[in-house]
């Protein structure tokens, strides 16, 4: 099958002075300016040397390139073609941007973190980032890390970690409500072999402080994390701010003994609307059972105050164990595989089935990881760790800016779409530039589907 076209012969001509391929960058960067990007960059980021001059222009150029889909320093040259110079009066060459990033140190990278935090607050004031401000549902905060693969050992901090992949570790913290898609509220770049829990308490403290400056400051916070982040220090940090927490627990001795005390009558069956693939066994799962008991976490950890909460356990059929039973063997947990998490969510507000369902939605942060790796994090640009750290922070800033652009269209599909969809529909729009009475007019396609939005 092939697409029909008219006329049968096509002549292609180039008119660099009047054509632009990224007309959607105009409202995107205007929104960034209104949210304070230029002023914050000028006031907060101070890089020494002549490479650090005009930092607001260079940071804005990097953000604009990432919104347009750039995944490397070389791709930043896409902002300097055709009539882009008429729409954006000042951009920088990729070599200039590379020299700018290499001048950053750890302290300057922290300045960019402060910029991203304040920019998120500015965006929240100009668009309904988190849906209705007076909603009663909690704000779901997800914590996760992912490895960005690199090739060769030249990059500072590149290590081979538990994933057996050489790379750098990106720690992310996102916020989601039942009315909005995930928004990145904090990020941190670490060496590839870093333990998941390294520095996470201070990281969570900074992320929750940013969230308290947004429009959802008065709403209940519920933090979800994997077993790699489980620690008494993290749980106490979240509880000290009045938040709830649910963290996956490893199958340690105390957890196994606690699961063994659950009676057969306590399990509640859960029916899946569609079968899903179990990531551990690779088999299809179409049913499960869930139960809970009161549990005191970290009771055996020295110099740690035990924390009282709920141990919610979900079990799914283990077909491999069933095969062992048929072969005459006696497995530890016959025909079931168990998954447990500890939570401080009150039982009178969320029952066992509901709290288990909401905890498993923690997987939504994996979509954020995939979206970042599909755009700016496809390639880390420098051999210097601080430069890559700044690149990651600006990639998260561009992610939030793209998300805000989709929300402001009032199109429910674009409000929750992945950044690649928003970029394809709203940013990568061809246009022709015209002038009238000293006013620049951008002519968009006549039958553009998202013109009303």
Q: If you had to describe this structure to a student in words, what would you say it looks like?
A:
This protein has 453 residues and is α+β, with helices and mostly antiparallel strands. It has 15 helices and 13 strands. The protein has helices at 25-34, 37-44, 55-67, 84-87, 94-102, 106-124, 200-211, 232-240, 253-260, 319-326, 352-360, 364-373, 385-408, 412-415, 419-427; strands at 19-20, 139-149, 159-160, 166-176, 183-191, 221-225, 244-249, 268-277, 284-297, 307-317, 336-343, 431-436, 439-443.
Rg, Cα atoms, Å:
25 Å
Report low-confidence residues grouped into runs of 5 or more. none
**What is the overall shape?**
globular
Largest sheet data: 10 strands, mixed
Overall number of strands: 13
Number of helical segments with 4 or more residues? 15
Short description:
The chain is of the alpha+beta class and 453 residues long. The chain contains 15 helices and 13 strands.
